[in-house]
Design a protein that fits this description.
The protein is mostly beta strands. It has one domain: 6 Propeller (Neuraminidase). Helix content is about 5%, strand content about 35%. The protein has a nine-stranded antiparallel sheet with strand order 13-14-15-16-17-21-20-19-18, covered by helices on one side. InterPro entries: PhoX, TAT_signal. This is DUF839 domain-containing protein.
């Protein structure tokens, strides 16, 4: 089963706590009352030709346009080849009205690093990030590798000091057994499963590769995404353990990152637990208005040393088990996360009850998706939305927010792949549908992020033939 990933919001400036509870504070769980609005007021989706070459790659509401760029197999500015599996992404303000995009490539296995191998964290690992400079209409100015030699760079999150934190969704390395992909971990030269920081500076946009320094104290597990909360200086992280329970984490660095100007190693890792309910199973269907007071339990050994080459299944649960042994809550496949107005919103891809007429998906969790909100100042967790069935929302993954505060959800469903909007009133609508990709049935949306001025929505197609889109049009007319 192809798995779609996350993206956190592209904001480069974050405020303090902001609006109490965030824009979705009045919503209750919508398990049986989710409302669907075609186009969110934008109207029905129609086939739209790509401004690059006229091919129809997206169905959008009338009046919207797009351009694709930097597809897999094309060339970076340095002449090296663009890998596939475009995934999580964030947008930063560039010079002279341009946008700087930092984009993940979720490549797994010992397939060799792209770009300059001498600068790779692990010369055998094929994932990493690219940094692109584009205009508001998707015209590519430059594109270069910016972190290489990592693996399964799924999503991450933008940091307000001008960096992208990229997440490895794996624990592969020469010290653990092979994973589901069948790759030979003994060929890898370094341990994987960490956070890496990639500065979104002009130097990196022009070809400088980030120093590959893992944040080991933030844990070695199947990281999905990262969202920074500026008051306490914590990085909240999701975990996508496909076949097992997942946890919701926070990393408390040794110095506030806004003062340090970067994310430092050597801090404390914790997992969320529900007060008075050890190992609360939040992957199951939730009652309307579900709200929980929470606490945080310490992970004593965030970067465990393995001996005897344990199985990948054992290694990928080693950090999470420490939290669950202390009462940590159970989630299903946590993916996208975003900080917005004092609240961390995050997505449980397979959370919820199995809907009538829907079969249970593969992996841990039987539902079609949940959207959760954590309020750090209250230490309170609440359910924003639970999908009543695949026709309404089908396995949400990456998430971002529009300038109005509407959430943009990338789906990882079994049928057509949509971008859907979730408004402050709890209305959900279709905004974009991906046209079938020849020979690549697993193609899916990923990495949605609005540009700094809100004019353009950038989004990736995560597939072997991956590419990036810039979408623009009459946003004022509907839910975004």
């Amino acid at each position: 089963m192809d798995r779609r990933r996350f993206l956190a919001r592209s904001a480069t400036v974050v405020g303090a706590a902001g609006l109490a509870g965030g824009p979705f504070h009045g919503l209750t769980a919508m398990a049986d009352t989710g409302q669907r609005r075609p186009g969110g007021g934008y109207g029905p989706l129609v086939p739209v030709p790509d401004a690059r070459d006229g091919a129809v790659r997206l169905h959008l509401p009338e009046g919207f346009q797009y351009r694709s760029f930097n597809e897999a197999g094309s060339k970076f500015s340095d002449g090296s080849t663009v890998p596939g599996k475009h995934d999580g992404m964030a947008a930063f303000r560039g010079r002279h009205g341009t946008t700087v995009l930092v984009r993940n490539h979720e490549v797994n296995g010992p397939v060799g690093a792209f770009g300059d191998v001498s600068k790779a964290y692990d010369p055998m690992a094929g994932g990493g990030t690219a940094t692109l400079v584009v205009d508001r209409y998707g015209r590519l100015i430059s594109a270069n590798p910016s972190l290489t030699g990592t693996i399964m760079n799924c999503s991450g999150g933008p940091m307000p000091w001008g960096s992208w934190v990229t997440c490895e969704e794996t624990v592969n390395g020469p010290d653990v057994g092979n994973d589901f992909s069948g790759g030979d971990n003994s060929k890898l030269t370094r341990k994987h499963g960490y956070l890496f920081e990639v500065p979104a500076t002009n130097r990196h946009a022009n070809g400088q590769v980030a120093a590959p320094a893992p944040i080991r104290s933030a844990g070695r597990f199947a990281h999905e995404s990262a969202a920074f909360e500026p008051v306490e200086g914590a990085v909240y992280m999701t975990e996508d353990n496909f076949g097992f329970a997942s946890g919701f984490y926070r990393y408390l660095p040794p110095k506030h990152p806004l003062r340090a100007g970067r994310l430092l190693d050597g801090g404390r890792l914790q997992m969320l637990a529900v007060k008075g309910a050890p190992n609360k199973d939040l992957s199951a269907g939730q009652p309307k208005g579900a709200t929980y007071d929470v606490t945080w339990v310490d992970i004593e050994d965030p970067d465990p040393e393995f001996t005897g080459t344990p199985s990948n299944d054992f290694a990928i649960q080693a950090v999470g088990k420490q939290g669950r042994d202390k009462g940590g809550a159970l989630f299903s496949r946590l993916e996208g996360a975003i900080y917005h107005h004092g609240t961390i919103y995050f997505v449980s891809t397979q959370g919820g009850a199995t809907a009538a007429g829907d079969s249970a998906p593969d992996g841990f969790g039987d539902g079609r998706g949940q959207v959760w909100a954590y309020e750090p100042h209250r230490r309170r967790l609440r359910l924003v939305f639970e999908s009543p069935g695949s026709a309404v929302l089908d396995l949400p993954d990456n998430v971002t927010a529009s300038p109005r505060g509407t959430l943009v959800l990338c789906e990882d469903g079994d049928g057509d792949n949509f971008l859907r909007g979730l408004t402050r009133r709890g209305e959900i609508f279709d905004f974009a549908r991906l046209a079938p990709v020849d020979g690549d049935a697993g193609a899916e949306f990923a990495g949605s992020t609005f540009g700094p001025d809100g004019h353009t929505l950038y989004v990736n197609v995560q597939s072997r033939k991956g590419l990036t889109f810039a979408i623009w049009g009459p946003w004022h007319r509907g839910g975004f």
